[in-house]
Amino acid sequence: MERMWKGVSFILGSLLVGTLLSGVLLSLPSGLQSNVLAQRDINPQNLQTANDLSTTFRQVANSMRPSVVSINSMQKARVVRGGTRGIPDGILEGLPPEIRDQLFGNGFGDSGSTQPQKSGVGSGVIIRADGYILTNNHVVEGADALEVELSDRRRIEATIVGTDPQTDLAVIKIDAPNLEPAPLGDSDAMQVGDWVLAMGSPFGLDQTVTAGIISAKNRVQGIVGQGEGFEDFLQTDAAINPGNSGGPLVNLRGEVIGINTAIASRSGGYNGIGFTIPTSLAGPIVDSLIESGSVRRGFLGAKLGPIDEQRMQQLGLPNMEGAYIDQVLEGQPAHLGGLQPGDVVVEVNGREIRDLLQLRNIVALTPPNGTLKFKVIRNAEPVMLTIVLGERTNAALARFNPAGELWGADLEPLTEETAQQLGMRSTTGLLVTNVTEDSVASAAGLDAGDVILRANGQPIGSIDQLKQMIAQAEQVGRPLQLVVKRGNSRGLVTIQ
Fold this sequence. Notes:
seven-stranded antiparallel beta sheet; 496 residues; globular; six-stranded antiparallel barrel; alpha+beta
């Protein structure tokens, strides 16, 4: 018993000594505390820097929370009517288009079926106190109803103000009091290595915050608008997962510098590479969508090419930066403003041009009739030009690729003139000008004068776009279904 009490006394004594030493250590002056930290190989200055960064993260996250929302998009259950098997073509062609679409849908499948109600979760950020919210187009695309959940758990029905599939941006609106908008920052000022926070609702987990850095700038991935869109992504290693789409990427000043859009992943989850639409690209789109609900883009009328090493040496350029003017359309803005084939655009409105994609974006983000001041290198000498842009339309783009051949049929994009002659209000479509006998087009039933309006349910505005649709159909082993206008009727043509 005596030995047991001695053991207990020893333990209690050790605890008492430890407590006294801790008290002494905590009561030491800061200089002595630093010495203790130094003995542990902890630099007090580094620790303070880390604490300051942590405090900044916390402050930015707290300031942004009221501006970040979850977006629930819902598609109602619907009956899909498809299948025209066994119905004579003459009867189909004789039906008015709206009746045929109502009865048979897009003609795919063998019988009617019911699609279940679908819902999805994305993110968004409040950008104006009167309820405007910026998000991705793919978050709201095809939705029959939208519901926004705020940080204070209010759930409010939202309406779509406008969408722009070519940049994957959309603006929606809610009517609610006490909204806190987030400021938009300057994405061009961000540098590789800068800290950022990504916010949103990954996997439906609202108000999630992740931290990382800007990993790269000016990424073009060919993922927006089926590769025809406008991209200039910021790349980040801040964790972005499904559901983060439409949420903000924020700098340490608490400013939105991007909209989280996509990830590079083999598994569908976070792999350390995310892509964000910068505010330099999003800003003009947002203003246009709020003002008019749509986006009108500038048109230069020049075909651009890259500056490679061979071209740099041939032209005597100091580096490979700039955009090469490969072709100028006569009578179009570039020609009227004095641009010539062989010119190298190095500045626009005082901003250095690094490559053709940057120039393409600048032109597209400038409204029609906007004025741009170009600095070009011509014959090793700088030349200043002022160009007033036209409007980017299918008819304008068709001038670069006026005709093409597919399946033994000659095709050309519709112009305003040909559309008017055919009694059409839209210039979206490809006109069949000639069909070779015994060709695939002839066997499928295409004829001169037909207008191809859609391919597998998507509007067709260019030959290159139709070629992409053909490639996609071949990848999945599926025939290509064309909606064709012939005279005053529409019919379905299948290309095997």
